[in-house]
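Question: I have long wanted to understand how a fold can be written as tokens. Here is the record:
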Amino acid sequence: MSTDKEKLLYVEHCKGLNGLEKVVLREVRGSSVEVYLFGGQVTSWKNEYGEELLFVSSKANFKPPKAIRGGIPICFPQFATHGSLEQHGFARNRHWSVDPDPPPFPKNTSNKAFIDLILRPSEEDVKIWPHRYEFRLRVTLGPGGDLMLTSRIRNTNSDGKSFTFTFAYHTYFYVSDISEVRIEGLETLDYLDNLKDKERFTEQGDAITFESEVDKVYLSTPTKIAILDHERKRTFVLRKDGLPDAVVWNPWDKKAKAMPDIGDEEYKHMICVEAACVEKPITLKPGEEWRGRQELSAVPSSYCSGQLDPLKVMQSS
């Protein structure tokens, strides 16, 4: 039976910027994760050395209803812009609650640092998106410092209506220098180029590198993607389930300067690689549930995507 003191070691409820409620997850080796209830948003992920692994803009606005620029915003019920809904939906600028009755998770886990959040529609939300749902989110910090997000979205409409949505974990990774970053695991795949009116192309390079603005949705992607930060000799490994697409985005200099909540030079230190479901929207009938999961690890850069065995990485961490 864990004591209250032990629970506090792993999960601390406290106040963040501007008095916003947040939860800090900690593991005994020193890694930590910060989750704001506003947006249900992870805003910090630090390794055992206290090094920040996620990018949050120095100009990020922690004042609702403006979404927080950086970390892991959740795009729901849409990615990008369609119809009358705001860009990337509304989940990232709503206040979530701690879930009093979370669904059961596997018992054979050693994870103690986790928080269960829930989002339900307000009456105002129903006016702009006329559906009832329960969005449950579990954020977990593993004993080895891995960060896991599991989303469960259930259709709770009582009028018999299905609903359709798109989704993304809009993850901002912190990198030393964008020009020294490469992404492996998406080569040879088809993608939709948002800078060219969503025209479809096939990736030609043996890895993705950056020298200008990029905004692409890669289709039918593998469950594992590697983001290599050569300067820091670090590789981020993104593993995903239930999310067939992957978005890659960096605004580069001109767009960054036009964005009020990002510094002019900050684009050099961020890359968004997002586990997503964009091309083929998800449809849920009343009572049906969808589940999408993302797991992030940071490992030495001696690894590359072709060598990464997810099971070995999990065991070694």
About this structure: The chain has a mean pLDDT of 91. The longest helix spans residues 4-10.
